[in-house]
Write a structure and sequence with these properties.
Elements: E1 11-15, E2 19-25, H1 28-40, H2 54-66, E3 70-77, E4 80-88, E5 105-112, H3 122-135, E6 142-145, H4 154-160, E7 164-171, E8 174-182, H5 188-193
Parallel strand pairs: 5-6
Antiparallel strand pairs: 1-2, 2-3, 3-4, 4-5, 6-8, 7-8
Helix pairs in contact: 1-2
Length: 194
């Protein structure tokens, strides 16, 4: 049974051709079955958790919840769980060793569950939802991403969303593009109105 977006939503918005997207805090116990399925799907190979057992995913979620510099969230479409978002403070993450971290930088990773049937523009709408949510906090000045260089599906989405890649970096588990999207640089809003 999929997780529902019943706890207090942090952000909600309507996105053309996709519907209502929302973000809520993750509930490690309630969301574990859903996340276990998502993390172990071949679609999520760049997440680096294929083959994780339920206890290993539960431990991961517990460590994330206890980390004062990172957090995890469930995104929903029309009330049903659809995507996972992690935010983190780059000053306390490996990426922070690769550039001068500025006040207001917010690191972000996201994973969209493999859809039962394709929805045109879904991942771009999810990215827009995440950007709207993060930038609704006035303290967030810039979103930082570091996708695996081989994750060729995410690069066009990041670039279309206003991220600028600064160069490749070596992280403990991958070679990645380092990218930034400053407040006001998102261009997805225009794309989604069409």
């Amino acid at each position: 049974m999929p997780s529902l977006c019943l706890p207090a939503e942090l952000h909600t918005g309507l996105y053309p051709h996709v519907g209502r997207l929302s973000v809520r805090p993750a509930d490690p116990e309630h969301d574990l079955p859903t996340l276990l399925t998502w993390f172990n799907h071949p679609h999520a190979r760049f997440w680096g958790m294929n083959g994780y057992s339920a206890s290993r995913v539960a431990d991961y979620l517990l460590r994330l919840r206890q980390n004062p510099h990172a957090d995890g969230f469930i995104g929903c479409r029309e009330g049903e769980a659809l995507f996972w978002v992690e935010t983190y403070d780059p000053r306390h993450a490996p990426v922070g060793a690769h550039y001068p971290v500025a006040p207001g930088d917010c690191g972000m990773h996201f994973l969209v569950a493999p859809p039962l049937r394709p929805v045109h523009g879904l991942t771009r709408a999810v990215m827009h939802c995440i950007q709207n949510w993060l930038f609704s906090d006035p303290a967030v000045r810039r979103i930082v991403v570091e996708p695996d260089i081989n994750n060729h599906k995410i690069h066009p989405i990041n670039l279309d969303a206003g991220f600028v890649y600064q160069g490749q970096i070596e992280l403990p588990t991958k070679r990645a593009w380092l990218g930034f999207c400053p407040r006001g640089a998102s261009v997805l809003a225009e794309d989604l109105r069409a």
